[in-house]
Amino acid sequence: MTVTAVPTVLTARALLLDMDGTLVNSDAVVERIWRRWAERHGLDADEVMKVVHGRQGYASMAVLLPDRPMEQNHADNARMLAEETADTDGVVEVPGAARFLASLDGLPHALVTSADVPLSTARMAAAGLPLPRVRVTAESVGASKPDPEGFLKGAAELGIAPADCVVFEDSAAGIAAGRAAGMRVVGVGPRADLHEPDIVVPDLTRVHIEATTDGTIRICVQ
Question: For a surface tag, which of 28, 85, 139, 209 has the fewest beta carbons within 10 Å of its beta carbon?
Fold first, then answer.
């Protein structure tokens, strides 16, 4: 992957954090669940995997099965969420995530995830990570990423202007959502590198947070 030239520093007043692929590596579960789904529907599993990261399940299904009624997508999505919540085998933190979250203690930040409350709770616990106090989950929004609603809602709940927020994301849909919200984006991992975020890091071990006396947050990429 192409890593942004370092050292690089961004300043922000709040951080908005995706979960899967950004804080939590859940690829093993996502692969298992969605490849089974692809087989049931006679779809090429490799092509399915190019679509599903970052979106809510029903939104991925709408892309993959455009002629299927949306109510079927929502019903199918509910079943898959239950499967994903019960399956945490192989779910681990993205390297550096625990230290990164600890460094944000007391600073404005929020989780903005396409997972619902049960799934986000299960995956963060499986990875040994604390849940941020402010969380925007699937139940909180009417539109899935790449729509910017989740990030805009996260900024609003923190009381911070979108332009003063920095998003941490790994997927095409999430990076597009952050940009549409008018926010800068730090891409995490190899998927992010394909979609031109402002900065790319291989994982969170390269990111260091510093609080300043004027209330801003310095994001140092080393």
Answer: 139
Q: Does residue 67 carry a catalytic annotation?
A: no
Are 46 and 34 in contact, with CB atoms under 8 Å apart? Answer: no
Strand partners, 20: 24
Judged by phi (left if over 0) then psi (alpha if -120 to 50, else beta), residue 54 lies in: left
Tens of pLDDT, residues 205-215? 999 999 999 98
* Bridge partner list, 217: 12, 211
pTM of the full predicted structure?
Answer: 0.89
DSSP annotation of 85: H
Which token pair is 147?
């729509």
Q: Which of 18, 76, 116, 193 is catalytic?
A: 18
159-164 CB contacts, 8 Å cutoff, 24+ apart? 159/108, 160/13, 160/14, 160/108, 161/13, 164/12, 164/13, 164/14
Of the listed 20, 116, 147, 193, which one is catalytic? 20
Q: Which pLDDT belongs to residue 4?
A: 59
Helix ranges (H only) for 164-211 are 172-180, 190-193
Write the pLDDT tens digit of every residue in 22-69: 999 999 999 999 999 999 999 999 999 989 887 889 999 999 999 999
Closest by CA to 115, choosing from 98, 127, 103, is 127
